[in-house]
Please model this.
Amino acid sequence: MRDELFAIVDVDSMYASVEQVFDPRIRGRPVCVLSNNDGCVVTMTAEAKALGVERGQPWFQLRNHPRRAEIVFLSSNYGLYGDMSARMLAILQSVTPRWEAYSIDEAFLRIPAEGATATAVRIRERIGGWLGLPVKVGVAPSKTLAKVAAKRAKQRTERVDNLAEVEPRRVQAILDEFPVADVWGIGPRLTARLAAHEVGSAGQLARLDPGWVRRNYTVVVERTVRELRGISCIPLECSPPPRRQMVHCRALGKPVTDEHEVVDTASTFAQRIAAKLRRHHRAAGLVQVWLSSGGSYYSGAPIDVHGSQALLEPTNAARPLALAAARLARRLYQPGYQYRRIGIILPDLVAEHQVTGMWTTAKNRTIDEALTAAIDSVTSRYGKAAIGLGRAGVRTRAEWEMKQQVRSPAYTTRWDELLVAHAR
DNA sequence: TCTGGGGTCCTAGGACCC
DNA sequence: TCTGGGGTCCTAGGACCC
Model:
């Protein structure tokens, strides 16, 4: 008998559910949350799905939906979702310190096999009661099987499923019914390749010889085979490994054609990513900039250029990163194109304490340290847009800033947007 | 007019070493 | 006729996740 099991806690359509927590009027209604720039649907409630809305569907297409008037569309409000996610993790911490934040709406836990189902029910009740978020909980001997259990939990009224208490033969039957494409770690490519080997269900995949799978596929798929057999190969990661790379790329709210605007945008993005580097105590020695006219669905001449520049030594200060990004953007810029997508990529990050400062002059180092400290203290008090270098320090929104026509308030993270209760 | 934004890991192949 | 055998490191690309 195993003494510990994996549990996965998964919020039902997280973004939409959070919006419903703060706005009772939209509970029970079809709700769709849109991507950045209000481009396409990223999350929707079951009610919206029932109306035929699909994940990834562009918003402009849905404006002609026959039942458009019933559907609630909202811009994404990542600050709010991130804050609710942190609160959920705090609740899990009250159950066990052995949890892993897997994504904004999912966490894995290690829980004792004894009373595991009761624990799962308690977690669900606590998150539902304290935060108002609906979750499902899957429990099993491996992470991959816990994900299977969570999918099953969705169909059940109690929203909890523990595969460890199902008898083995019945588990086999469950896996035989489970499409291989829905297995965690099996994407569209592998699904197609597996189909060629007549493997269409999780049960069939689990019965393949692990050695053969390793030779014909990869060690990743081999692990999945073992995990489906109930042998845990993917451990819980309580402390997340340090970031290896950081990316900040955005589709712009409006295409940009002017060189200055392209350079300003790259510089602003670099400052945002520099702040993120500092929060993670990481530093970057290489800056890559990417300019693109968007996808093939746009008219106009396409352009898609990358450039990179090594810094003298790794840093997370705003000034050198912004300068490098601006220089690269200027170099990559070509007139006559419409730029709709700009990105900064920082690969090969190192720990902040590894930076020696050997290659920076004392004067520059002093300037960078003072500037960075000033920027961090001002933004922590007055918000991200309060101060910055160049265009980033201008408070009015630039035209290319993200389109968010229907964003809800940042109820939990901004004093000026707090939820207000009115007495009748 | 309008189609997201992050991440991770693995593998194959090239370059280079002795 | 017949042209070694290991290693390491790096990069690009593929595949996956939410």
User: Anything to note?
Assistant: Chain A has a mean pLDDT of 92. The longest strand of chain A covers residues 304-315. Residues 42, 102-106, 184-190, 218, 220 of chain A lie near DNA strand C (CB under 10 Å from a C1'). The domain at 1-162 of chain A is CATH 3.30.70.270 (Alpha-Beta Plaits).
